């Protein structure tokens, strides 16, 4: 009976050792999964930040396109005015025979 108890004790110690090994492996798996989760959370945070920066840049691009369009419109308007002034100047030059001071009597 004593030998049977010793055998049971030996089996129990072996089983306990196996359970400790299993527990250790599971703890390692948990640590690895936690590390993987942390890495993925950091990557996701970075992705959100990049997405926000991208949205900001798209907004700025839209604003700059609008300003460019406005400046192009203003430039076209000024060019039209300059063309009109040049036309009027040429009309005045042709009417005065090329002498701009023709009306001056000083």
Which range does the strand content fall in? under 5%
Helix residue percentage: over 70%
Coarse structural class: mainly alpha
Q: Please tell me how large the radius of gyration is.
A: 44 Å
**First and last CA, distance:** 145 Å
Major β-sheet profile: none
Q: State mean pLDDT (0 to 100 scale).
A: 93
Quaternary status of these chains? single chain
Number of strands: 0
Instruction: Show unreliable segments.
Output: none
Shape: rod-shaped
Helical segment count: 1
State the order of secondary-structure elements, H for helix, E for strand.
Answer: H
List key phrases describing it.
106 residues; mainly alpha; 1 helix
Account of the protein in words:
The protein is mainly alpha-helical and 106 residues long. It has a domain at 2-64. It has one helix spanning 2-95. The longest helix is centred in the middle third of the chain and has 94 residues, at 2-95. The chain is rod-shaped and about 140 Å long. The model has no long low-confidence stretch (mean pLDDT 93). Residues 2-50 form a coiled coil. Keywords: Coiled coil.
Short structural summary:
This protein has 106 residues and is mostly helical. It contains one helix and no strands.
Indicate the topology.
Blueprint: H1 2-95
